[in-house]
Design a protein that fits this description.
With 267 residues, this protein is of the alpha/beta class. It has eight helices and eleven strands. The chain has helices spanning 23-34, 77-83, 118-129, 142-149, 170-182, 207-217, 232-240, 253-263, and strands spanning 2-3, 13-17, 40-44, 62-67, 88-93, 112-114, 162-166, 186-187, 197-201, 223-227, 245-248. The chain is elongated, with a radius of gyration of 20 Å. The two termini are 37 Å apart.
Length: 267
Amino acid sequence: MIGDGPESTSAPSLTLVGRSGSPVTRKAEQIVRRHRRHWTLRIATPAEFPLPDEDPRAQADLMLFAVDHPDDEVIDIDRAWEQAPLTRWLICRGDWCESAGRTRGRWPQAVDIPISALTSQLQLEFDVLQNRSVPTAMTSDRNEVFAAGHPPCSGSPLQEISIAWAGPDRTLGEAILTSCRAAGAKLADDAGTTADVLLFDGDPWTATRQEQLAQQVAGGPPVVVLFGYLRPQYHDRAVSHGAATAIEKLVPEQELFDAILAAVGRE
């Protein structure tokens, strides 16, 4: 068994199942280890399934599958659920699996997420296991899953922070700025001179768009770049151009607000 050594008496257990050394497995392990105080991590490979009943990995509080490609799904899903009916299940996918849910995927929408959403989903799963949140039903459709994963924030975490939008999608920009204003932010008219932070639409991520990002960063406020789908290389390139960070456009409000607060040094 591979894991974190002595078991915690308080942290719930998480078994990560993925091909050894694969990109999504490595990324998932990094994310879980950043939340190490929340989870007791154990690791398994698809070839080991079904795990013996006496194996502690088989009775984890959360079973997390890392999948790089739809053809990686070699486990018997029904048998896995039958083996551990009280376990929470989650599958995180890489870039090659973007269309899997519309074609051959068998996992319910409620447990099927892109790897870029794993950080926020792990927090939701932890809250469920701590009886602080109600789990999303396995039968939920896409709209219900989205609503459950994007609860509105209370209070005014962005109080007195001025925010501007730079991007071709004005409708999306207005929607995001409306959420920020409801959280206490002020809307800046001139992103280059009056904003405390600039929200920059990274799509389409072309050479021209990257040049525009570099121009906005030069001498301007901190920049948070937003992508429709955040690939790791997009994040790294945006940061290399001087952005404070990069996130997905449809992240939960709190994740957006946390990125803004970090950009202005108010974490």
